[in-house]
């Protein structure tokens, strides 16, 4: 039985035939030894055919298909052209990618092999590609590999950036870290300032308000009625502001020096800045979730949805998870401990922080968590694969969960999922048709066209400026030549004079 090896390069597809079957046999050690030397390995394999890619875009498309295990038209046509004349039972095809091997076997019916010997043969072909592929030079192979590597990586990074789920992962991680830091710093500020004014910590529980009050009050002995409006602005309560003023007059705290007050005030300023940044980061996360995963945020809340995305690694990974995995996402330790000890498995993970789990009864917590995980899976898949983000599906799914809670508590009949989805789709279609008939939308389209024309003109102007800058040296040379002709510098002055004399004699 003959054996062929498919080798994907950055320049095209190549097919090699293994010729040294009897000499080296099927032992892995002998194949590894032969792959180390070009002279010996050239006797093991023989190039049968090579088809180059049409362009760099074609190479990128084929590289993406190979990585995803898809047999496109170029690859299938190449294999059928070279192997279609043989019977499938008379040869084996070695493929490095196992997913691609399975796709080729399913689509074309070839007997594909992807074992260690095939991988060693591919390694040897890659190492000695400049010798085996005689029609390709080493420099051309290197340039093609470099260009394809850059474009392939750029395409993957662009896909990740367009989804922007990485920004959500970083933001929720930073938000959790800031919560810990704010608590630590605020407790340190409370403990430090409480030596001077211990009653303030009992009256004000919010960390941000406490740090702002430290900056306003400073020394309790100098607190007067004039500072009462500023305190009231911080605590948003007139009675509490009056209580702080009264407590400062009867406080049991110790006196404090001006140097200590300066250091405490500086530290309180840092706490205030961190709390303000934490609020702005929270707003940024909410807006980012509204763009990337609006349905998931509308269903379960932006914070819980962001934690689900961060724990899954990306929105794409979360959309691929089944509902049973989403249900216990974040409770992996409890799950494996229960499996090891043969105890009860957890009913929920991160989705426990949703308000639906807390509102459900003790008997229905497992049911509602399973139902909520199912709806979270649907919402994440809609967010991941839709082109126009909308919150309609998330709001409809949230109503479904509300109806399921009412069904468990009161026995009210819930809506069917197909009816809910159909109504949302019809609503979106109606909105699209109304937007198309709205003259304001036509004005927006015209404005976009005008902006595109303006940008196009700007690009043409920039290109014209670049061409002028490139062409200026040539124009300057021509102008200098003309000036020299007119002035006579660098030219033979006798030539035009002699020609005039000849004309006058005639």
TrEMBL record:
One of its GO terms (biological process) is ribosome biogenesis. Residues 475-484 have a biased composition (Basic residues). Required for 60S ribosomal subunit synthesis. It comes from Tieghemiomyces parasiticus. Residues 292-410 form the Nop domain. Its main location: nucleus. It comes from the Eukaryota. Residues 461-506 are annotated as: Disordered. The lineage of its organism: Eukaryota, Fungi, Fungi incertae sedis, Zoopagomycota, Kickxellomycotina. Pfam families: Nop, NOP5NT. This is Nucleolar protein 56. The gene is nop56_1. Keywords: Nucleus, Ribosome biogenesis. InterPro entries: Nop56/Nop58, NOP58/56_N, Nop_C, Nop_dom, Nop_dom_sf, NOSIC. GO terms for molecular function: snoRNA binding.
């Amino acid at each position: 039985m003959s054996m062929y090896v498919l080798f994907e390069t950055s320049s095209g597809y190549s097919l090699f035939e293994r010729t040294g079957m009897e000499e080296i046999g099927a032992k892995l050690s002998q194949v590894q030894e032969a792959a180390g030397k070009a002279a010996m390995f050239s006797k093991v394999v023989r190039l049968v055919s090579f088809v180059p890619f049409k362009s760099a875009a074609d190479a990128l498309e084929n590289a993406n298909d190979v990585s995803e295990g898809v047999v496109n038209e170029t690859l299938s046509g190449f294999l059928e052209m070279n192997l279609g004349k043989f019977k499938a039972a008379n040869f084996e095809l070695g493929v490095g990618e196992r997913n691609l091997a399975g796709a080729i076997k399913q689509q074309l019916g070839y007997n594909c092999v992807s074992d260690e010997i095939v991988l060693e043969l591919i390694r040897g072909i890659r190492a000695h590609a400049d010798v085996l592929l005689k029609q390709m030079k080493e420099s051309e192979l290197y340039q093609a590999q470099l260009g394809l590597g850059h474009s392939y990586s750029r395409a993957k990074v662009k896909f990740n950036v367009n989804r922007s789920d990485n920004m959500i992962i970083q933001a929720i991680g930073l938000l959790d870290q800031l919560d810990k830091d704010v608590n630590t710093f605020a407790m340190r500020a409370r403990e430090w300032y409480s030596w001077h004014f211990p009653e303030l910590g009992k009256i004000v529980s919010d960390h941000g308000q406490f740090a702002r009050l430290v900056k306003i009050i400073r020394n309790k002995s100098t607190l007067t009625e004039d500072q009462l409006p500023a305190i009231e602005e911080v605590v948003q309560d007139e009675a509490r502001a009056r209580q702080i003023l009264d407590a400062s007059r009867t406080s049991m705290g110790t006196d404090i020096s001006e140097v200590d007050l300066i250091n405490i005030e500086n530290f309180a300023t840092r706490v205030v800045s961190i709390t303000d940044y934490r609020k702005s980061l929270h707003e940024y996360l909410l807006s980012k979730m509204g763009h990337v995963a609006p349905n998931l945020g509308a269903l379960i809340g932006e914070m819980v949805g962001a934690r689900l995305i961060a724990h899954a690694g990306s929105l794409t990974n979360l959309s691929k998870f089944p509902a049973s995995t989403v249900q216990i996402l974040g409770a992996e330790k409890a799950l494996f401990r229960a499996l090891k000890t043969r105890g009860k498995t957890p009913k929920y993970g991160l989705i426990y922080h949703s308000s639906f789990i807390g509102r459900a009864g003790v008997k229905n917590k497992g049911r509602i968590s399973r139902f909520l995980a199912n709806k979270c899976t649907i919402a994440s898949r809609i967010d991941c694969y839709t082109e126009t983000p909308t919150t309609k599906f998330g709001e409809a799914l949230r109503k479904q969960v509300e109806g399921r809670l009412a069904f468990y508590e009161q026995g009210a009949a819930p809506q069917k999922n197909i009816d809910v989805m159909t109504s949302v789709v019809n609503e979106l279609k109606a909105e699209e048709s109304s937007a198309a008939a709205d003259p304001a939308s036509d004005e927006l389209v015209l404005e976009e066209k005008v902006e595109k024309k303006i940008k196009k003109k700007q690009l043409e102007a920039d290109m014209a400026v670049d061409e002028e800058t490139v062409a200026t040296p040539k124009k300057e040379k021509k102008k200098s030549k003309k000036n020299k002709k007119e002035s006579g510098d660098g030219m033979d002055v006798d030539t035009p004079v002699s020609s005039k004399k000849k004309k006058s004699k005639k």
